[in-house]
Amino acid sequence: MPVSKKDRETLRELAGRLAEIGALPVQQEKIKLWKALNGLKPVRPMVIVSNIPWHEMDVDGELELQTEDGFCRYLETRLRRTLYGWKHMPVDMVVEPVVDVPLAIRGVDYLDRPVATAGILGLDIVERTIAADPHNDVVSHQYFDQLATEEDVQKIVNPTILLDEEGTARAEEKAHEIFDGVIAVEVQGYFMNFSPWDDISKWRGVQQILLDLADRPDLMHKIVSRYTDAYLSLLDQLEEQGILGTIHQDIAFGQRIVQCSPDYTDELPADGFDPARPRPRHSARDSWTFGAAQIFDGVSPEMHQEFELDYAIKWYSRFGLVYYGCCDQLHKKIDLIRQIPNLRKISMSPLANVERGAEQIGADFVFSRKPNPAVFVNDSWEPEVIERDIRETVDSCGRYGCPVEIVMKDISTVRYKPQRLWEWADIAMRVVGGGHA
Known about the structure:
Structural class: alpha/beta
Helix content: 25-40%
Number of helices: 12
Shape: globular
Oligomer: single chain
Strand content: 5-15%
CATH class: Alpha Beta
Number of domains: 1
Number of strands: 15
Strand order of the largest sheet: 1-15-14-13-12-11
CATH topology: TIM Barrel
Largest sheet: 6 strands, parallel
């Protein structure tokens, strides 16, 4: 279906603004700062924002979509959010003068859903949800157990994926029709992460998993072993077909990220990479990956090793650099996770002991610090509390020579007061020595 004149003009206008911003010298300056941090030689702490309640953020219609075609609306969403972020809370985001188009791959739904929850491992989610805000996609979940017996484990199947060359060509042609003469278009492959317990939790429920780790360990080993084999099969297919991507684009701002952190580095791709090869025909060693086992926050180090790391290491050993952790308090397990091959960044829960985490990490990895997003929910807005918290993180990491990034994420609500997030960005940048956002 051809792109309408209105859709094309709307996207070209937005892309023109993005191209101008992407050409600013500050973008290269920020890339250098991220490379320094990711290379464990930081110039200063870095700041980024992710996982935003976009339904609460619009002011003056800045985020209101004008296009009608589905593919155009996907592109417009990314463009508008990137421009919004740069205007209101740029922090250390990098805007590149390029529009990325994902390869069309049969067997995965690239634009909307994670691989496993899309059902390509054989299981969809069976659940009940309750929403406090009908406009917010952050909801309460009750998951129903689909892996109650050892026989059920066979429901987890190896996926079958295939590059849709015609679909990819159509999307690429459509993007060039829209953007040529305004901004570059690049086709990107599929970016992979490994968080088996996030998916298994959606197939079983967290309570049942935690009970069975103690009561039915053989079943839990069979589940995570089958999952790991299926996921490695997926990785093999992506590599064999030459469709594994090295860049993950955050739909929030259109940024290059790993998990929620810009991925710029001089260490990747690996030696022997051939940039002249057509399309993104990379191997895993050219790329970052990330993963976590958030529900293991309360289990012993021994159980974390047995049921998570003994399997996850098979995945991480295939990749060039690794970002590990999310909303788990890993300050008690740094020695344990040091064994992860190619580990570079460690993320922790807002509830983690920052001082102990910085001391344990030292100069060996980047501490991906997650401040508590609950600051946006309070009746009163307390900028001094926010500043004190960020300064304590920066000071703790400074005492131990620990590279640190401040990542404000998982923001389920700002109570329809987006200015709070803008002010948080200004405070954070001032504290880390980056000036006002």
